[in-house]
Amino acid sequence: MKYKNLLNGEWKESEKEITIYSPINDEKLGTVPAMTREEVDYAMETAKIALDKWKSMAVVERANYLYKAAEILERDKEIIGEILAKEVSKGIKAAIGEVTRTADLIRYSAEEGMRTVGEIVEGGSFEAASKNKIALVRKEPMGLVLAIAPFNYPVNLSASKIAPALIGGNVVIFKPPTQGSISGLLLVKAFYEAGIPESVINTVTGKGSEIGDYLIGHPLVDFINFTGSTPVGKRIGELAGMRPIMLELGGKDGAIVLDDADLEKAAKDIVSGAFSYSGQRCTAIKRVLVMENAADRLAELITEEVKKLKVGDPFDNADITPLIDNRAADFIEGLVIDAEEKGAKQLTEYKRERNLLWPVLFDHVTLDMRIAWEEPFGPVLPLIRIKSMEEAIEICNGSEYGLQTSVFTKDIVKAFDIAGKLEVGTVQINNKTQRGPDNFPFLGIKGSGVGVQGIKYSIQSMTKVKSIVIDL
C-alpha cells in the first residue's frame, strides 16, 4: 500500500518514496513519502497559519477532538495492532495493547488539559507597597511543536507527544520513525477522521539523515520533543539553540539486588524487565548488581526464568522476536564476543539467526567489559557481583546515563536510602524498571534526557506562562 502524508488537511504523496519492510520476514508492507525540504517548508508554514485559530479555541473544544480520536483508535485497535506488529516485530498481543493504552493516554490528556488553568497572584502577599498589584498568570501554548518518535513504541510514544501538545493549544509537525512510519501515520489518521482542523497536525516522513537536521533547525519550530538515541539527542541540543526541548534518550538501567531480597520475585521481575520486547526499550533492565552471597542463587533463578522465554514469531506472541534490523543484532553480537573474550560466564546459549537473537545471560561480568556500560537494546543481560550497597551505587552513578534503577530489598528504609543516592530520574522499589503508568512523571538525567514527561508534566512542558499585571 502507498501511504501518504497529512499536509494542510489533505493526504499527499511525494516524488520519492521509502519502502518499508517487516523485520520479521522482509515482507514489503508499503511505501511512505520521502519528503523534500520544500515540502517540509510547506508543512511548517501551513501549521503556523493554523496556530492562531487552534490556540484560541476553548480547551473543551480541543478535548472533543481528542476524545473522538481515542474512540477511533479503540475501534481500529486490531487493524493498527497488526500493522504495528509486522512493522516493528512486536508480539501481536502487546501491539494491540499499545493501541489500547494509547487511546487511554489521549483521553487522559484531554481531561488533564481541562484541569490546566492559570492563577491570580496578589502582590500584597509579598510586600505591603504592592498590595494593589494583581498578576493574572495565564498558560499559553509554545506554538509549533516538532514531535519526533522512535520505532519501539511508534503509536504510544508518538501520541505521548502529540496529545499533550494539542490539548495545550499547540500545532504539531509529527516526524514518525522511518521503521514505524506506517503505524505513526495510522495514529494521525485517527485524528484526521475525528475532524481535527487542517494543519493542526502535519506529518513529515523521510530519512532522518536527509531531513532530520533541517527539521530540527527550522526557524518556524518553537519546541522540540524527541525520543531516541543519546547521540542524536545531543545533536538536537546543539541545533536547537535557545529553543526549549524535551528529550527522552537512552539508559543503562540497573537492578540492585541486596541479600535480604525476595530472590524469586526479583528474578521474575528482572527477566520481565530485561527481555520484554526483546530488550528494545530505554527502560529495560540492562545490568544486575547483586550481592555476592545472593549471586549464585539469583543467577540460578534468572537462568530458569530465561529458559522459559519463547523465541520466534510476534504473531505467536513470542517473548523474544526479531530485532529491528541486522545492524542492531551485529552491535549486540559485538558485546557478547567482548564479554566472552574477557572471561564472563555464559549461563544461556548464544544463538543467532539473522536479526533474531536468543536471550543470553552472563554472570561474573567485570567493569572492563563493554556490556557493563553500553546500552545493548536487545536480549542480553549481564550480572555483576558486588560486595556492598555503596559499590552498587557507585557503579550505577558511574554511568553516562541516568534513567531508572530498580532496588530489591525487604528493608524499606534501606531502599529509600539507596534511592536518595542514585543519580536517576526514577527508582523502582521491588519492581522492574518501566515507563508507565502514563500519568506518572517520566524523566532521565545526564545522558538519558532533558525535561519531564508524563501527561500532566508534558502539557506543562509544552505551555508557557504569561503574566499580565494590573494596578488596581
TrEMBL record:
Keyword Transmembrane among record annotations: no
Stored Gene3D superfamilies: Aldehyde Dehydrogenase, Chain A, domain 1, Aldehyde Dehydrogenase, Chain A, domain 2
Keywords (A to Z) from UniProt: NADP, Oxidoreductase
PROSITE patterns registered for this protein in UniProt: ALDEHYDE_DEHYDR_CYS
Gene Ontology MF, one: lactaldehyde dehydrogenase (NAD+) activity
EC annotation from Swiss-Prot or TrEMBL: 1.2.1.-
InterPro entries xrefs: Ald_DH/histidinol_DH, Ald_DH_C, Ald_DH_CS_CYS, Ald_DH_N, Aldehyde_DH_dom, ALDH-related_metabolic_enz
Lineage: superkingdom: Bacteria
A Pfam family the protein falls into: Aldedh
Family in the record: Belongs to the aldehyde dehydrogenase family.
Name of the protein in question: Aldehyde dehydrogenase (NAD) family protein
Organism: Pseudoleptotrichia goodfellowii F0264
Phylogenetic placement of the source organism: Bacteria, Fusobacteriati, Fusobacteriota, Fusobacteriia, Fusobacteriales
